[in-house]
Write a structure and sequence with these properties.
Blueprint lengths: L1 H4 L14 H6 L13 H6 L3 H24 L13
Length: 84
Amino acid sequence: MVEIAQEVPNIAAKHEGGDPEVDASRERPSEIFDYFLSKETILDGALMASLERNYLDKHDSVNRTARALIRAGVEVTPASGLHA
């Protein structure tokens, strides 16, 4: 991402999960289908703690990407109102 962002203007980074090595170490790694779980499935499977951990891993990954881009001198502009 850092190499490409230095040459491609207005590139976007989208994170669907955390760092692959960290995710693989989790008892329940994240997966794209987690977005579609019903509340009932989450509660019945006692999945909330795992889903919350995976969500926080995703944010850690976003922050690490932003720091790497800034260190490389790439301007970072977060998307405003993305989920509004």
